[in-house]
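If you are new to this repository, start here. Below is one unmodified record pulled from the training split, so you can see the exact layout before writing a loader.
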Amino acid sequence: MGIFRGWRLLFLSLPLLVFVPLLFSVSELHRKPNLEQDLSKNHAKKFDHLVLGPAAGQGLPNRLQCQVYNSSQIACRDDKLCNTVIVGNASYNKVERSMAILDTFINFIQVSVPKSNVVILSDPASELPIHRNNVHLLHIHGDYSREKLMLQRIKSYIAFLETRYEEYIQRKNHLDNYIFTDSDVAVVDDLGDVFKKYPDFHLALTFRNNKDQPLNSGFIAVRGTPDGILKAKIFLQQVLEVYNSKYMKASRMLGDQLALAWVVKSHPSFDVKRFTRPEAFLDEIHGASVLFLPCAVYNWTPPEGAGQFHGMPLDVKVVHFKGSRKRLMLESWNFYTSYAASDYSDMLCLILRSGRTKYDF
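And here is the target side for that same chain:
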């Protein structure tokens, strides 16, 4: 994995999986025997055991073919067992799995970007049991209910940037470069190159070849300068206004991404065709210099199904285990720690053979 040797980065994450107002404490992980496989069609469920097999789909140049999950179906005769996930020798219930994912998120950052700090943006009512070096918990008041979590995420980002800007104005505090991410991502390579290679942006967004939802809010970078923080805050405030006025019906999911796309595409000179090519580009959007980075490198998601799968980009830096892929995040870290001698790409290149297809460049 790449090692960051440039400026310090500050990673900020709202733990999307841990949003209950009163979080249960994580009990000690314990061993359990593997679940019995039941191929009953009456209670079908995705098979979630890693199966090494042939590559799926058609590869593209400079892409790595992946290991796949078996397409067999299983069912649980005991509802309690259905809520249990076994990865390697560890067994998790739902709450423990959420904390394991957050812990794995931190693990990846500390291996790939060891000089960075991690700040977890959290509901003041949630006491997350996190005791790690260079990891901090920052409570931000708001509505963290499931229905408003995506809306709250934008509000939390704005609140954080406002605080940093005010502290700088009052005390001339040192400013770091900031990266806001979801907690279900694995940072697997140096991200400092974003700030060095592209010195003129205020904030960076990731895009993909998707007409209706070209922007993903799971990765937002902000340059650690007074101008960068101020312009990024104003930009996100515009996104929040659009969110509130147009997309509140999608406040539980996707509203922030729809609002981001509306703000960007509503700019008169913006060319939406640039979203169809996996090449980084810079544009000025409503007074802010915005860097657009391809998801294929900075926010890559393992696809579900082989229909449109083209392999994992060899230069991927951030893997986003969104949705049903969260189990793969725990599998990949277990793979990495269990088989340290193998190529790190092997443990990241996991896909679900579910029959569903996803966009890809």
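Two things worth knowing about this chain: Residues 9-351 form a domain with the Spore Coat Polysaccharide Biosynthesis Protein SpsA; Chain A fold (CATH 3.90.550.10). The CA atoms of residues 201 and 289 lie 5 Å apart.
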